[in-house]
TrEMBL record:
Residues annotated as domain Transposase IS204/IS1001/IS1096/IS1165 helix-turn-helix: 94-143
Record protein name field: Transposase
Annotated signal peptide: none
Species lineage: Bacteria, Pseudomonadati, Pseudomonadota, Gammaproteobacteria, Oceanospirillales
Residue stretches making up the Transposase IS204/IS1001/IS1096/IS1165 DDE domain: 158-401
Ranges where the Transposase IS204/IS1001/IS1096/IS1165 zinc-finger domain occurs: 47-88
Protein species of origin: Vreelandella titanicae
Length: 418
């Protein structure tokens, strides 16, 4: 077996294509290996429309980057014909080693995608010595193609969460199949509110699902979103996620702390101390001291903190009835505590929000869908953000969310093995 035969096997070339020439250039940096592929003279090629063997009309020279040959960049060159079909006229044929329009061979793209699933895109582009822009183009192609194969015909329970694509930038809204144990993301879209749920509903319908089959939605309490859900998913009962309740109160508490700080000095450690979950978060000594001081001086921040912490009593309710009873009592007691205290206004708003959504919150005790999944989204968003580090737009961030958190990643592996 000579070198040409080995390379032919390595490329997986089949008739009519043969490797005609090869050239290793060690005078350029990086070194490159050029492989020249040709079809035998007078070969017939299948018409891309009907598959009928046709004569070539003319040829165009094309080049693809291929997997490195050891440390050398490797390029594949071929003269690609246009067929002259009696029925379909003149058409450019597809070559078996690359997809139409790509400057890379399929093997190169597969290798790139395997790396992108494991490390940041920027790092992969450096390792492959290509621009990250071109690499993103490959990522988008495969993610888009795998999304096309997503089967959503059995989706009946949906969770929704949103995140800023970058600090303070535009939002990305993510939809989850609440019944999927692994890779729950089924849709991600720029923006937030009503438009995103309209987009989801259309996406669901385009992938074999039906908006009318969705019977449960777990989400936060934004009005725009709730209106959208009522319109687009008419059979869905809405459950407000507990995680979002805590988030609402935590934000309000932080607002109170900021307001109060304008009037009186707080110890530095206080900010994180009050925002931390006191049951699971490990407080530092400084933070504990800050909290103790807070409690002794009966500041507004202390009151707000107690209001937030007492949510736990509701959370531990054993039954829906008990939960409803606890919410009612909690609201009564806490409203008395905040009355005539202007600094606590943000807490009053949070309490009103809870009151307005009581039934949706109580549904959590009935629906059986765990909200741990939505809480887990934060980890996914962070991972996607770091993989897409330096990304230029939301589309890249979204592609990464799909790649890490949706079935797309596994569809890709399956496509590769066939
Ligand atoms: Zn034809």
């Amino acid at each position: 077996m000579d070198g040409t035969q080995i390379l032919t096997l390595g490329l997986g070339l089949e008739a009519p294509w043969v490797l005609k020439d090869q050239h290793l250039d060690t005078f350029v940096s990086p070194h490159r290996l050029d492989l020249y592929v040709e079809a035998e003279r007078g070969s017939l090629y299948p018409c891309p429309e009907c598959g009928k063997a046709c004569k070539a009309h003319d040829f165009a020279d094309k080049t693809w980057r291929h997997l490195n040959f050891f440390q050398h960049h490797c390029y594949l060159h071929a003269r690609v014909p246009r067929t002259q079909c009696p029925e379909h006229g003149i058409k450019r044929i597809e070559v078996p080693w690359a997809r139409p329009g790509s400057d890379f061979t399929l093997l190169f793209e597969q290798a790139a995608m395997s790396l992108v699933k494991e490390m940041p895109v920027l790092a992969v582009s450096r390792q492959l010595e290509m621009s990250d822009k071109r690499l993103w183009r490959i990522v988008h192609h495969y993610v888009g193609r795998m999304l096309g194969e997503l089967d959503l015909s059995r989706v009946t329970a949906v969770g929704v969460d949103e995140t800023a694509s970058r600090r303070g930038h535009r939002y990305v809204t993510v939809f989850l199949d609440m019944q999927r144990k692994q890779d729950p993301v089924i849709f991600a879209v720029p923006g937030h509110g009503k438009a995103t749920i309209e987009a989801f509903s259309a996406f669901l319908a385009a992938h074999g699902g039906h908006p009318n089959h969705v019977t449960e939605v777990v989400c936060d309490m934004s009005k725009a979103f709730l209106n959208g859900a009522a319109e687009q998913l008419p059979n869905a009962e809405v459950t407000v996620d507990w995680f979002h309740i805590v988030q609402t109160f935590t934000k309000a508490l932080d607002e109170v702390r900021k307001r109060e700080r304008r009037h009186q000095a707080h110890p530095k450690a206080l900010r994180w101390a009050v925002l931390k979950n006191t049951e699971t978060g490990n407080l530092t000594d400084q933070q504990i001291t800050a909290l103790q001081e807070l409690m002794s001086d009966r500041s507004a921040t202390a009151d707000a903190w107690i209001i937030k912490e007492k949510l736990r009593w509701i959370q531990k309710a054993p039954t829906p009835r008990a939960a409803r009873w606890r919410i009612t009592n909690y609201l009564r007691v806490m409203r008395e505590a905040v009355i005539d205290k202007p600094l606590l206004k943000p807490m009053i708003k949070a309490l009103e929000t809870l009151k307005r959504h009581t039934e949706r919150v109580v549904r959590r005790w009935m629906s059986g869908l765990t909200n741990a999944r939505l809480e887990g989204m934060n980890g996914l968003f962070q991972a996607a953000r770091s993989r897409a580090r330096g990304y230029r737009n939301e589309a890249n961030f979204i592609a990464m969310i799909y790649l890490i958190g949706s079935p797309v990643g596994r569809l890709l592996d399956r496509a590769k093995s066939t």
